[in-house]
Amino acid sequence: MDSAEVRLRTGRRWALDVTDEVAAFTADKGDGLCHLFLPHATAGLALIELGSGTEDDLLEAVEEMLPRDRRYRHAHGSPGHGRDHVLPAFVSPSLVLAVESGHLVLGTWQRVVLIDPNLDNPDRRLLLHFLPAG
Amino acid sequence: MDSAEVRLRTGRRWALDVTDEVAAFTADKGDGLCHLFLPHATAGLALIELGSGTEDDLLEAVEEMLPRDRRYRHAHGSPGHGRDHVLPAFVSPSLVLAVESGHLVLGTWQRVVLIDPNLDNPDRRLLLHFLPAG
Amino acid sequence: MDSAEVRLRTGRRWALDVTDEVAAFTADKGDGLCHLFLPHATAGLALIELGSGTEDDLLEAVEEMLPRDRRYRHAHGSPGHGRDHVLPAFVSPSLVLAVESGHLVLGTWQRVVLIDPNLDNPDRRLLLHFLPAG
Description:
- The structure is a homotrimer.
- By secondary structure, chain A is of the alpha+beta class.
- The first copy, chain A, has helices at residues 19-26, 54-65, 82-90; strands at residues 2-9, 15-17, 32-37, 44-48, 94-100, 103-104, 111-115, 123-132.
- Chain A contains 3 helices and 8 strands.
- In chain A, the strands form 2 sheets. The first copy, chain A, has a 5-stranded antiparallel sheet with strand order 1-8-3-5-6, with helices on one face.
- The longest helix of chain A has 12 residues, at 54-65.
- Chain A is elongated and about 50 Å long.
- The first copy, chain A, starts with a strand and ends with a strand.
- Chains in contact: A-B, A-C, B-C.
- At the A-B interface, strand 4, helix 2 and strand 5 of A face strand 3, helix 3 and strand 8 of B.
């Protein structure tokens, strides 16, 4: 199966656009499904618009849902890091996109965005697998 | 790859059952996976029961999580529309279902539901792709 | 298409590790995608770390988002059961994982976890389908 690993550095950016990296992977492929996966327990993949403030609106929503100052049982890492471990239950690290003649099927405003409120680990990997049709 | 586009009109209905449309697409196919996708930045797909009030319970939960009267950075559209852009991070516009002999594999009470609290855009498209097994 | 049904008993355990069951299913397969599916309207699948308290942190987050003592329109089952029907909109019962030479592609800390806050139905089924590459 055609696959690739993309190495990313998030640092303090908690929303990172990875659309171009995924599109580069599928560019020389035909029709099929592309599976995107983060092998991490504190990050997720979202399809959202970027550039009009939505990424910060999302961060605020995450802070409301999973406040960093709540007491978490998970006690490793920096204060409040426990909430980063809850996030992938709601923003999954697994995502499937369709590919037509090598092109990712996406709406005009949709970007593939790595959501990573975890400040403790800036090194991230995105795993891509392509399953061709027929 | 076998694909189809379903045109939908949501209007003020924020939960729209699309199960029959998806089932019609897969009916003449064999075994495989069906990829469902909304090319929109303010809608998602959920697998929930309909008809016992869950759709309104979900709307209430969304209103609690992402209140329309919160201040959003995203400032286009009608008041509170910014929250519609956050929704797809939690209710993904991408969904995969298994298909056996043309039949969608679903539980008795599960329906495929387009979740769309966005009142600004009543015209929606659902993109379907079928990947056959072997 | 290669498929299997795993029968599970959740009882009062609302987070059940099913990674080993999925890995056993894919062990004799090659490269491809594995589709995991719960044919239930009150459960979801999450990729989270287990064993450091995250499962209880997640339950607490679910209780905050969807408190059992809120009034739900869905009125069947034990008090507050209506919120169990909302959960799958946020924690989807559908999940896709990549498989390489029979091995599930997962990060070191990721486990496949059945999330099931529903105390009314302890009998659960997990449906697995494998789509081989090429």
